[in-house]
Specification:
By secondary structure, the protein is of the alpha/beta class. It has six helices and nine strands, in the order βαβαββαβαβαβββα. The structure holds 2-phosphoglycolic acid (PGA).
Length: 234
């Protein structure tokens, strides 16, 4: 139990998280460090292939990813907050405010896609493929932040995690479109190698992160009340 671990004074916690998890993992880590100020923490943010390499090389205590990756690594996976993927457009786009926009209508627009190897790119492409639609890809960009600026710059629409808008909130320069079949619901997972004996600190963080999940969902619900029903784990 977390209460028994309150006495932890020292120790190290190494976390490896996938790029898009950088929008919420540092906040959980920050709260955790307030509780255990003597703990030294290291946070590595990297793409999926790099994080899977780090799991195989046993470089960190815990990992946050957007899938369990059970086919590639032998891990225990603990579900964390939901990760809704939504269609984003510049605030002055003519489709902003329209209801239930068909996927085929969206496919007429130019798209900015994440780089190969991104879980969000794969999920987006899968959805279009399932509907026999090929998006018009204007460019590929390996950074959520660069994509946000490219959207605002009028270079195209994109599908990204709602978590990427946590700081600017619902009134920022990037608007959400209400598109049929969206949001694509993904889920964050905390992973660690199967059979690995977690340190006391890592166990404390795991429990703390799981307990923080409802706070993250609450905040997202407040920001985007229309999407609220998607944020609750089933
Ligand atoms: P990504 O991962 O940032 O690599 O796309 C997030 C996810 O898998 O949902």
């Amino acid at each position: 139990k977390l209460a028994d671990l309150k006495g932890i004074k020292r120790g190290r916690l190494r976390l490896g998280v996938i790029t898009t998890a950088k929008y919420f993992a540092p906040e959980i880590l920050g709260e955790f460090c307030k509780l255990y100020p003597g703990i030294e923490v290291a946070l590595k943010v990297s793409n999926r292939d790099r994080i899977l390499d780090r799991i195989n090389a046993n470089e960190d205590d815990l990992y946050i990813l957007g899938e369990t990756h059970g086919d590639q690594v032998d891990v225990e996976a603990v579900p964390l907050a939901p990760n809704p993927l939504v269609v984003m457009a510049p605030r002055d786009h003519p489709l902003v405010g329209e209801k239930k926009i068909p996927l085929a209508r969206i496919a007429q627009e130019l798209f900015i896609l994440r780089e190969p190897g991104s879980g969000i790119r794969d999920a987006t492409q899968r959805l279009f493929e399932q509907h026999g639609i090929r998006p018009r890809v204007r460019m590929e960009l390996g950074s959520n932040e660069a994509i946000k600026h490219a959207i605002v710059g009028g270079l195209g629409l994109s599908v990204m995690s709602l978590h990427t808008l946590t700081l600017e909130g619902p009134e920022g320069p990037v608007a959400l479109l209400d598109v049929e079949d969206f949001p694509i619901m993904r889920q964050w997972y905390l992973l660690y190698p199967k059979g690995k004996e977690l340190s006391l600190v890592a166990r404390a963080f795991l429990e703390f992160a799981v307990a923080s999940t409802s706070k993250i969902s609450d905040r997202m619900e407040q920001m985007w009340p229309k999407l609220a029903h998607h944020f609750r784990a089933p």
